[in-house]
Amino acid sequence: MTDTRRRVKVYTLNEDRQRDDRGTGHVSSGYVERLKGMSLLVRAESDGSLLLESKINPNTAYQKQQDTLIVWSEAENYDLKICQVQGKDPSVDITQDLVDESEEERFDDMSSPGLELPSCELSRLEEIAELVASSLPSPLRREKLALALENEGYIKKLLELFHVCEDLENIEGLHHLYEIIKGIFLLNRTALFEVMFSEECIMDVIGCLEYDPALSQPRKHREFLTKTAKFKEVIPISDPELKQKIHQTYRVQYIQDMVLPTPSVFEENMLSTLHSFIFFNKVEIVGMLQEDEKFLTDLFAQLTDEATDEEKRQELVNFLKEFCAFSQTLQPQNRDAFFKTLSNMGILPALEVILGMDDTQVRSAATDIFSYLVEYNPSMVREFVMQEAQQNDDDILLINLIIEHMICDTDPELGGAVQLMGLLRTLVDPENMLATANKTEKTEFLGFFYKHCMHVLTAPLLANTTEDKPSKDDFQTAQLLALVLELLTFCVEHHTYHIKNYIINKDILRRVLVLMASKHAFLALCALRFKRKIIGLKDEFYNRYIMKSFLFEPVVKAFLNNGSRYNLMNSAIIEMFEFIRVEDIKSLTAHVIENYWKALEDVDYVQTFKGLKLRFEQQRERQDNPKLDSMHSILRNHRYRRDARTLEDEEEMWFNTDEDDMEDGEAVVSPSDKTKNDDDIMDTISKFMERKKLKESEEKEVLLKTNLSGRQSPSFKLSLSSGTKTNLTSQSSTTNLPGSPGSPGSPGSPGSPGSVPKNTSQTAAITTKGGLVGLVDYPDDDEDDDEDEDKEDTLPLSKKAKFDS
């Protein structure tokens, strides 16, 4: 046996489920007389002592794990043995590769024809139970056991023994039968299930599963199924095969849900065939009922018949609900055919009748059916309600019935209202609406919804907000209004002009903001979220509506009433104002500061309101002095380098401009007026630059550092590469920067002196290879006058006339 030796480590699992190391040795196999069979022998490599002596039992599952472990459990005491293969013995030239499970099974498959079952006798039940239990770990042995059970009709013989044991009150035998039947379930074979779930066997199988050894008293499943559970035919079923299939499915479902113990982690996948059996049974039942036109016709006729009594109608609705629930097991193609059949039979008109009834249980079941239809095909439901709107009043429209049931939900937790709100949201969601060449479902349905249904949805909101605070502020009303606001907020986000017209025309936002005074924080936050969604759209129609109606007042009041508490309300309100500041919504910024600044100016733990004030002041300055707005744009543009070609194009366009066009619009200003204007503008510029520095410190923005001292302006140079090399230099003397309302810095009107950023195309003078060419006269200093005269000599006459002012 030396040619097959392997070096291994032997472990056993102790009571604490920890591994005990028994030592390292070499494994071999041989016949052991004491054990009367072939055995595994492991002898220690150190002294040759015997570490392991284990009889090889054909019913023992030897499992290979992690490529190097062989694990099994001894039948006598269920101690777990582990051999870890350490590698090839260096002294052995020829070794035998470890046989993995699949190879072992193939070998066994060739060597043994099949599994031989013990005779089905009362005295051998324990042996049968052990055989079934030992076969479950190995796929090959499970297969052989299943084949043996099928071929020999073994299950029926076991069930005959069950009657014998029950008559003899042989509890031990009944416990063995429980283990055997449970093991057969875990074999996961459809052929065996067909036998076990047949009409003659299924109740005996359930009887075997009543005798769980873990329970002191047997369960009474058969008594429940035969006496308590009653089968009602709301519409008589003429097909006996269909009736038998319904009975079978109910009982198998009961076995799965109530009789069989909850599967362990290792057994979860062993009942997959049982799930499939139930699934396909349901598919067959739905198909057979769907094909029976007489059955469905009678069903819907009785549903809508006013003569049908309430109890009968409740049974019919419950049947239809379960019928739709079964349809969820169908494949998409079959489900399409199923709902199309129901639609042709008139399920939606029937639901409309049922939802108008007073019985709450019937209405609840009808709501569940309606949810199946909406989830499957919302377009079908929308098409129906638009068609019925042409014939019926608004009060009895299907969608309005749904809204009314939502509003009138008596459940304190509003469970039904939440479900209905979800269905309404699906129906008004433009994402699942169809658009074709002939019609647009979105336009048609939303037009219908806002005309016929929206007033019903907003009725509780309008009824509760007639004053400055909610007229009813109990928890259930607050929950309902929160649901309504959630749907309205969804509409604001997705419906654009439909909801905009409705909100502005009906003054909805003012009514919603009344809820800011609610004692329920979640409702006040819903109202705030609604307004925040509107502001987030940055739509000037909404903004003008908010300003005209002073709709920030309830928000500011809520903010002040909240005090210094650091909670969600505080954060949400500040975030809304911060959004207005960051997005620079000018109209709202001005409105808030002009009307609510005194109430908010003391809030200094965030810089939001001070930032809003700063935005407002900058905006006011630009409105009061457009030239400062132009100056601000010049200073702001220093961050962006303009392309040299743009500069050249602008200069060439100006030089090519007809002088007559330029002179027509020029204003003639005397030098004294110029000087006076320069002084005024200079003061304004100084103030403006001081405010810019303040903004720089508060907002930490990097601006162009400008230092104005008296009338001196700093000097900047910009070199441009072009066909003629050009230098743009601003004069260090007191100058007038050219500027005009149309384009800041363009010639033709007096500008304002000051620093000019490096990338500005409008500058004081241009130096070319041909000499210094002055664009604008600077008649402030005597020295400059002389230089300017020289410059003028170099200009063409047409240009001189242009610059003399």
From TrEMBL:
Coiled-coil region list: none
Biased composition (Acidic residues): 657-666, 778-792
Gene Ontology terms for molecular function: protein phosphatase activator activity
InterPro entries: ARM-like, ARM-type_fold, EVH1_PP4R3, P4R3-like_central_dom, PH-like_dom_sf, PP4R3-like
UniProt xrefs under SUPFAM superfamilies: ARM repeat (SSF48371), PH domain-like (SSF50729)
Family the entry assigns: Belongs to the SMEK family.
Name of the molecule in the record: SMEK homolog 1
